[in-house]
Design goal:
CATH architecture: Alpha-Beta Complex
Distance between the termini: 49 Å
Largest sheet: 4 strands, mixed
Number of domains: 1
CATH superfamily: Nucleoside Triphosphate Pyrophosphohydrolase
CATH class: Alpha Beta
Structural class: alpha+beta
Number of helices: 4
Strand content: 35-45%
Radius of gyration: 15 Å
Strand order of the largest sheet: 4-1-6-5
Helix content: 10-25%
Length: 142
């Protein structure tokens, strides 16, 4: 029975998310331009490409989606998102900004990109459980 369940299980897709704060402890967020959760706000991120490490993937995704350069740090948490046909296994990494004057510019899969303080983040339509999850990890903006 367990073997049959595994055979019928959706594939697991490795993904990353970036936890990026600026000097004012605002959190970098993007409005998603693609499914899942198109139009909702989340942290930058995406799939880990073949041959990439999680650190390489998160640095690439932040650059593609926001135009900002970061250095990946430690994993702050993991989430699994069941999207029906696939399950996204997302490792969220703390990232250090490398740009001296970071101004996010939306690109690739993002339609908007901003640094959000706590009040701004609370007013945004975010992906399911984003705020609760980040709060549990202690990485919400100030």
């Amino acid at each position: 029975m367990a073997a049959c369940e595994r055979e019928n299980s959706p594939p697991v897709v490795p993904c990353v998310g970036a936890i990026v704060h600026d000097d004012a402890r605002r959190l970098l967020v993007i409005r998603r331009g693609q499914e899942p959760s198109r139009g909702l706000w989340s942290v930058p991120g995406g799939r880990v490409e073949p041959g990439e490490t999680a650190a390489q993937a998160v640095e690439r995704e932040v650059l593609e989606e926001t135009g900002l350069r970061v250095r990946a740090g430690r994993v702050v948490g993991r989430v699994r998102i069941d999207a029906g046909a696939v399950v996204y296994d997302v490792a969220d990494l703390a990232c250090e900004l490398l740009d001296p004057d970071p101004v996010p510019r939306a690109g690739d899969d993002a339609t908007e990109a901003v640094f959000a303080d706590a009040a701004t983040l609370a007013a945004l339509a975010c992906t399911p459980r984003l705020v609760e999850t980040l709060g549990g990890w202690g990485v919400l903006p100030d």
